[in-house]
Amino acid sequence: MATELKNLSDYDTTSVPSGKGKKIGIVVSEWNNHITYPLLKGAVETLLQHGVKEKNIPTIFVPGSFELPLGAQKIIEEVDAVICIGCVIKGETKHDEYINHAVAEGIMKLNLKHNKPVIFGVLTPNNEQQAIDRAGGKHGNKGIEAAITALKMLKL
Ligand code: DLZ
User: Fold this and answer.
1) Residues of the chain falling short of pLDDT 70
2) Boundaries of every domain in the chain
3) Going by CA atoms, what residue is nearest to atom 21 of ligand 1?
4) Residue 11: per-residue pLDDT
5) What is the pLDDT of residue 2?
6) Residue bearing the CA closest to ligand 1, atom 3
7) What would the pLDDT profile of 16-33 be if each residue is shown by its tens digit?
8) Disulfide-capable partner of 147 in 34, 40, 43, 98 (CB 3.0 to 4.6 Å)?
9) Which residues of 98-110 are buried (b: 16+ CB within 10 A; e: fewer)?
10) What's the CATH architecture for 28-155?
11) Among this protein's residues, is 95 annotated catalytic?
């Protein structure tokens, strides 16, 4: 998982399956939206670039990352895949651990229950700078990677 000095969003566009005809929903956490909105932008631009039509990218907003699984559950029936976008920055207490574990488990359960890709596009940084680095900074944009993951999983 070492990502130091690597821009994770550099990828070979020809290796990504087309999203033509696919409907991919996005659920975005409003908490830390200076981070989550750039992630959303990265995800949407990538889906469009790979053939998903704008009208086929329904996007909904939830208050915080904890609400991402329920948000995803609300739209999962109407789409082929869901991308969940959030950012939980470590603080003085263990709140981040509780949120991250709950969200990861909630998202995984949705994957298996609905047999559809539900992508964990949630940053779990130790500090603000690590978040910025992954939302269009020196480590790329995790929203782009979440979109690519969705397209690859739809191809399985
Ligand atoms: C409460 C809270 C805190 C302290 N930190 C974050 C965070 O860093 N990132 C995030 O997405 N959400 C945070 N939240 C909000 C929770 O996700 C949730 O919205 C509230 O606990 C209400 O359920």
Assistant:
1) 1-9
2) 28-155
3) 66
4) 76
5) 46
6) 95
7) 999 999 999 999 999 999
8) 43
9) ebbeebbebbeeb
10) 3-Layer(aba) Sandwich (3.40)
11) yes
